[in-house]
């Protein structure tokens, strides 16, 4: 254990389309989230994990922060991420090309309920033509809230992103390496795919299977007989065999439906035909198993 290791959780918040996902992707240097010109593309909570030999920064890119059902505090040796108050830092992203408005005021009201330091990150400065106007807007932000710092960036073009990362990094405190470093570098897609499957499974089973459900993408590889088809193998983990029964459904109907919905969305997002091989496994009390948690690679949220 590296005694000097520092780590922390950073919530990336802001209104739709301001560039949250782009920013996280640029910060950690690879694609972790799905970017599109349409608002609210980021439907699930996606974590971008930045790991170096000395630090680990977990960026939570989400339209809303979900409340975890179960205590992962033991595993993580910290309080679970429940609300904005439980992260170490908040990056509040705004679109510098737009005027301060009621939507922003609403976000700021929420920020006032937390004691976590907030960095105002004014994005899309590449679009700015009228600097005075920008400054007038920023004065409104800073008058409304006492930000720990203000950064002007272009997530798309990378301007000032190193400075922002430096600031975030400097604010990390001694802590554990929550995720093994290699986990996501191999395939952020696997995480996104798992999230989509989990969403569909929850959607279709609703009350019957509470949230004691997790999904791990085991394998993504080109099909042997068809280079245009990708084979995806994923496992839905539940805690009890009664839940397994529900997920599978009578005659496998439920599992089939979960697979169909998930596959449709995955195909749409990645623009790639896939074959989805979906399994269900009972893993009793896996929430308390370090190894499983690591392999699944994310917290359990509603
Ligand atoms: P989110 O909804 O906040 O996650 O926003 P996205 O990251 O999905 O970005 C929304 C749109 O804004 C996309 O079309 C991005 O390419 C674009 N965008 C993000 N950052 C910048 C930026 O710095 N400059 C410009 N010009 N466009 C950006
Ligand atoms: Mg997004």
Summed up, what is this model?
Helix content is 34%, strand content 25%. The protein binds guanosine-5'-diphosphate (GDP) and magnesium ion.
What summary fits the major beta sheet? 7 strands, mixed
Question: Over the alpha carbons, how many angstroms does the gyration radius reach?
Answer: 20 Å
- Gap from first CA to last CA: 32 Å
Shape assignment:
elongated
Looking at this structure, what is the CATH superfamily of the largest domain? P-loop containing nucleotide triphosphate hydrolases
Would you tell me which CATH topology of the largest domain applies? Answer: Rossmann fold
Mean pLDDT comes to 77
Low-confidence stretches: 31-44, 63-83, 182-187, 297-302
Level-1 CATH class name of the largest domain: Alpha Beta
Query: From the helix content, strand content and strand pairing, which structural class follows?
Result: alpha/beta
Q: How many domain units? A: 2
List the ions, cofactors and other small molecules found in this model. Answer: guanosine-5'-diphosphate, magnesium ion
Instruction: Estimate what percentage of residues fall within beta strands.
Output: 15-25%
The beta-strand count equals: 10
CATH architecture of the largest domain, by name, is 3-Layer(aba) Sandwich
Helix content: 25-40%
The ordered H/E elements are: EHEEHEHEHEHEHHEEHHEH
Helix count from the secondary structure assignment: 10
Write the layout of secondary structure elements.
Elements: E1 6-13, H1 20-28, E2 46-51, E3 55-61, H2 73-76, E4 89-95, H3 102-111, E5 118-123, H4 131-144, E6 149-152, H5 161-170, E7 173-174, H6 183-186, H7 188-205, E8 213-223, E9 226-238, H8 241-248, H9 253-270, E10 273-282, H10 290-296
Parallel strand pairs: 1-3, 1-4, 4-5, 5-6, 9-10
Antiparallel strand pairs: 1-7, 2-3, 8-9
Helix pairs in contact: 7-9
């Amino acid at each position: 254990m590296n005694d000097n290791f520092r780590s922390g959780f950073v919530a990336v918040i802001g209104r739709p389309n301001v560039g949250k996902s782009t920013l996280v992707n640029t910060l950690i240097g690879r694609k972790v989230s799905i970017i599109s010109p349409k608002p609210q593309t980021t439907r699930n909570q996606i974590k971008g994990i930045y790991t170096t030999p000395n630090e680990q920064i977990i960026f939570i890119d989400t339209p809303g922060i979900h409340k975890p059902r179960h205590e992962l505090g033991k595993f993580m040796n910290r309080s679970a991420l429940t609300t904005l108050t439980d992260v170490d830092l908040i990056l509040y992203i705004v679109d510098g090309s737009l005027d301060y408005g009621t939507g922003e005021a609403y976000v700021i009201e929420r920020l006032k309920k937390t004691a976590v330091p907030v960095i105002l990150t004014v994005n899309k400065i590449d679009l700015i033509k009228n600097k005075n106007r920008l400054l007038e807007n920023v004065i409104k932000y800073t008058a409304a809230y006492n930000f720990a710092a203000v950064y002007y960036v272009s997530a798309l073009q990378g301007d000032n992103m190193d400075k922002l990362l430096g600031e975030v990094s400097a604010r990390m405190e001694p802590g554990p390496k929550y995720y093994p470093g290699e986990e996501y570098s191999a395939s952020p897609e696997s995480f996104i795919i798992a999230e989509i499957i989990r969403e569909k499974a929850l959607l279709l089973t609703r009350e019957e299977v509470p949230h004691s459900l997790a999904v791990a993408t085991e394998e993504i590889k080109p099909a042997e007989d068809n280079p245009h088809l990708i084979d995806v193998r994923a496992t839905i983990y539940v805690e009890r065999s009664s839940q397994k029964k529900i997920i599978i459904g009578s005659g496998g109907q439920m599992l089939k439906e979960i697979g169909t919905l998930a596959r449709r969305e995955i195909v749409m997002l990645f623009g790639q035909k896939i074959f989805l091989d979906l399994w269900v496994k009972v893993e009793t009390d896996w929430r308390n198993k370090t190894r499983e948690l690591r392999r699944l690679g994310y917290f359990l949220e509603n």
